Amino acid sequence: MELRALILLPLCFPGLQGQTSEVQRRREGGTLYIQCPYAQRATTQERKFWCLSKDGACQERVRTYNEWWQKSTDGRTQIRDDTTNRTVSITMTDLKAEDSGTYFCAYYTYQYVTPGYIQLRIISLNVFQELLRWELDTLWVQCPAWCRRGQCTVERKTSSSRSTTKSLQDRATIHYDGQGTPTVTVRQLQTRDSGVYWCALGSERTTEIVLSVHKRTQQRTAEESGTVSVQCHYRIADYASATKAWCRKEGETCRVLATTGSEPPAANGTARAGVTVRDDSQQGIVTVTMAQLQPQDSGVYWCALQERAALSRMEEITLSVSRALPPGGSPDTERKSQDILLGEPSSSTFIIVTVVLFILLLLALITSTALGVRYYKLLARTGNREAEDTRDRPGGTAQPGSSGRRKSSQDDSQGSGYINLDVQSQPGPEDPLYCNVEPSQAARSPPGVEYALIAFSRPQEQQGTSPTQT
Length: 470
Prior knowledge:
Layout: H1 2-12, E1 22-27, E2 32-37, E3 48-54, E4 57-63, E5 69-71, E6 77-82, E7 87-92, E8 101-109, E9 116-134, E10 139-142, E11 146-148, E12 151-154, H2 168-171, E13 172-176, E14 182-186, E15 195-201, E16 204-214, E17 216-223, E18 228-233, H3 236-239, E19 243-250, E20 253-259, E21 275-280, E22 285-290, E23 299-307, E24 310-322, H4 331-342, H5 347-392, H6 409-413, H7 439-443
Parallel strand pairs: 1-9, 9-16, 17-24
Antiparallel strand pairs: 2-7, 3-4, 3-8, 5-6, 6-7, 8-9, 10-14, 11-12, 11-15, 13-14, 15-16, 18-22, 19-20, 19-23, 21-22, 23-24
């Protein structure tokens, strides 16, 4: 049959030769919209078709008539022929899983020996169901076989019963109604069951199903030495008689702390004082109470079903226990004490450090400025002294070849009225002698001094009397 279809396909559909299909995935309830340009290949008068390929034949879904557009009989498929742009458009709305299949848009021609459809575009449409469930929910799907990753868990010939193990194969069963319609049931769903499944009939996939299983979560806070109470809900019809457990998550395992059953916790459990689990099977609520809490009790816990040694999570609870405040303390005091104990800087410490650094920077700036001013004054004073020394030097006032010595400023303050000059050379009798007197000295007249005589001894007079000073 398959070989015959392959032979007839090019004959009935000349335009299908060498064509490949495009895969389009849509969820149920979605819309498919495609365009098929026909350019010069067809005239505007030729009818356009939207076909479902079945065994090499065109199962017509909708076609154009004298009008430029037309709807299908069910109203969910519409075809439009844009003769201006020479493009035919297909729209499928409210998609269903049974709409999955291979489609093509085409026009019919009589130009070949065997009239047939000229394919314009091939679409492989995959409409999938998207199912959202909570953990421990039950899933029902009308499906002859429940398959995943190339393996079918439940097939038509299977009639397994409910099991207490965690294997999906043992949690899935199949049931047939009076008309022989198969229904697959999957119980105690877990997050690890999320994935892509499909229903299959023999080797043919019929329906693709995208399953997403979410876990229920809670957040709880309590203080040291306090008490916390948690409520977890479950389906009464499915789990009223099951044993409920309270366990703490530790790595890949969950350590059981208390159960509703009379038996002690499982091998991976340890009873904890102050923990009680109460099951209200009439309301479908499990109430867990933990007393005398300590900071080390913070962590992740489960409300779970306990079946033999296996645990199935009902809800996940994150518990946070804070330290008790000291008498007369406040949350800020507690936080500061924790910062000190843990060595973590608080906001006040940060402010203090910032102020200290600012003060040190300001002091360094002031010190640098003061040193700069002092250095500038020292340079100015040194320059003045060099100028005074230049004026006092005899090289600037006496004749070349002579040197003089000025008396100290102390002598000037005592009001001395003369200046001694020692002339080393032998000036002539008519050589002039100059003496520089500062304006300050010229202005004042020391008492008891009217004039000063300076005499020089000739060589011949050196053996006689010494010069007289008055």
